[in-house]
Design brief:
This protein has one domain. It has seven helices and no strands. The longest helix is centred in the middle third of the chain and has 21 residues. The mean pLDDT is 95.
Length: 124
């Protein structure tokens, strides 16, 4: 989703969340959850940051459990896990997601556009 990659400010992110607040498709929900998780950056309260992080992490992981073959979701989780501070311990699926994404890209099951973002934004 190109729009996700163009978000540059909290205002942009809030606009994105409002636009897609009623979305139900797994791919779009994944991007919404990723932006929700990023909202933790804008609060100074460490307990609130952790609550936002844990809530959205759980929502994203549940979405992936229900849609394990969704490339967008696996990309988002890899992106978030690679950028999350190690102290939070959100790195359980990095290798599995990298293998999955590499196989999907090698099998040409991923759009050229999404492949570009995966390769640019992750360690794949």
């Amino acid at each position: 989703m190109i729009e996700f990659h163009k978000l540059q400010s909290e205002k942009d992110e809030l606009s994105f969340l409002k636009k897609y607040q009623n979305e139900t498709t797994p791919e779009i929900l994944g991007y919404v959850f990723a932006v929700e998780m990023k909202q933790a950056e804008y609060t100074a309260n460490p307990f609130k940051k952790l609550k936002i992080f844990n809530t959205t992490k759980k929502k994203l992981n549940t979405l992936i459990e229900n849609n394990p073959s969704c490339v967008d979701l696996r990309y988002l989780r890899l992106l978030l896990q690679e950028r999350t501070p190690k102290i939070l311990g959100y790195d359980d699926n990095i290798e599995a997601d990298k293998i999955f994404l590499k196989n999907e890209i090698d099998g040409q099951k991923v759009s050229v556009e999404l492949t570009k973002y995966i390769l640019k934004n992750t360690s794949l």
